[in-house]
Amino acid sequence: MGKLNAWLLTLSLLCFSGLAFRPDAPPDVTLINGKIFTSNAKQPYVEALAIRGDRILAIGNSAEVKALAGPQTKQIDLAGRTVIPGINDAHNHLELKPTNQVDVAMGENVDPSWSDAKAAIASAAQKSPANSLLVAEIGSSIFRDVSVNRDSLDKLAPANPLELVTFTGHAIILNSAGLKFFKIHEDQPDPLGGRFERDSNGRLTGVVREYAGIDIGRTIEDEVPDQAAVAQLRATLDQAAKWGITSIQDMSNGIAPARAVALLEKVPTPIRIRVMRMPTTTPAGRDIQEGLGMPRNPTSLITVSGTKWMTDGVPIELTFTPRDKIKMPAAPPFDGAVAYLPLTFSETEIAAMLKESLQNNDQLMLHISGYPAAKAVLDAMDATGGKAVWSSRRLRFEHGDGAYPDLVERIKAYAIVVVQNPSHFMALAGAGESPFVKAQPVKSLLAAGIPVALGSDGPTNPFLNILFATIHANHPSEAITREQAVAAYTLTSAYAEFAEKEKGSLEPGKFADLAVLSQDIFTVPPPELPKTQSVLTLVGGKVVYDAHVLKAN
Ligand SMILES: [Zn+2]
Question: How far apart are the first and last CA of the chain?
Fold first, then answer.
């Protein structure tokens, strides 16, 4: 490029960037006298920050930032409060609830007993109108009890459709009215990667596994009317903003991408949403067309990119293992469940997912819980070009529980991003089972230089999840520090969506996406963490939540 061309290019870039090309213009807002955690390891804490337009203009100490202010600059005194980059929930499922759904009150225990559940279900069935869909969340105790099936559920709820869903979401048990409600008939064929279980006579038992359950979940969310859907999403996203969440990466199994975008535009979403394709399957195969070719940035806050498939299930249900054959080790090592978790899709199908990702130049997210799935994907990456092809593509392992130490070197070589979900570290501990010995690594992956992002995939409260990440009940030696958890939940989550140059840390030039917090999450006692709220949340410099406790001039 000649000098003149280079000069013209520079000039046009400067003109194009508009606001950025006013080095002497004062900030619109300054935040001073705070404890600002930047997520930037080179300068982790600063006192003050200046914002102009939608970007961070400067960071530094309060005197330096104050000096930038002009007559119109709004100055906010943080009075020592803690500020973090806005949380980026890298693995969330935006959900719609059918308007006729009644949640059965199952108490606090994530793994309720069958006798407690029976009483709760019978009482809900008696009190609810005949057309309401009863939904009860269950744990492994009830799921592994083979006496819990369509027939026993019919006795408790003869008229209402009833759905028992395991807390992982990977299995459902329906009564007869539920089978009818979801239009599952006796000779219903299994979708690829899913199963309607049958007894030895070929009769449906009511147990629905993996993609068969995802597919029926989609069916009922599709039927939620737009007006109700918009109201539900608005409530969800307003709550997210109150928690200081400024970005959500949505796995669109519940709401198909095109509808998700249309609804989010109607809300309109106050925070940034990335909609990732998570298509369903049919007996004929995976739906590889859904959402393909949609505009990548339908609005400035919405992005559509990436595709997710579930390579295996979850250890709790030893997915696809018939319920009467599930046997968990009574004592450590519990890892048996992760070490032998069967694959949901064949190796051929996994190879096809990788090829589609390359063909469509589309980031691939794979649900990887067990060791065999992690290994099968790494082998398929070997077979489709290895490091040369994959090292720039940021393939994601969602969960990555079975990323055992012997796989770490390959995971690093292929530049895989692991997206972990801290609530999963507590699930088994909560269910009274033995901890994993080798599974669910976090700290050791970070030490190996593997990017680890965080997502909720469970309770959305990010401060509850930070608590879980810093305890790691299943595998305490893999617990991380609060600073590491916040960096993973912000900067690395942005990296996991190729957006780390725009957001994820508080540095000049990046979007002013941040949260001023109600308390210092780096020093409060652990039980206090989940009570944290944002008192001021900004997305691109714009206020999306304000508790009106900060003083401004
Ligand atoms: Zn998930």
Answer: 49
* Spatial CA neighbour of 394 closest among 371, 426, 368, 365: 365
CB 14 within 8 A of CB 2: no
User: What is the whole-number distance in angstroms between the Cα of residue 536 and the centre of ligand 1?
Assistant: 28
Q: Which domains does the chain have, with CATH numbers?
A: 3-86+513-552 (2.30.40.10), 101-220 (3.10.310.70), 284-495 (3.20.20.140)
Work out whether strand 272-277 and strand 245-251 pair parallel, antiparallel, or are unpaired: parallel
Query: How many degrees, rounded to 5, is the angle at CA 536 between CA 535 and CA 538?
Result: 155
Please say whether the beta carbons of 139 and 168 come within 8 A.
no
- pTM for this prediction: 0.94
| Span 388-422, pLDDT tens digits | 999 999 999 999 999 999 999 999 999 999 999 99
Q: How far is the CA of 249 from the centre of ligand 1 (A)?
A: 11
State the distance from the centre of ligand 1 to the C-alpha of 456, rounded, in angstroms. Answer: 8
Distance 501 CA to ligand 1 centre (A): 26
Q: Is 468 exposed, middle or buried (0-12, 13-18, 19+ CB in 10 A)?
A: buried
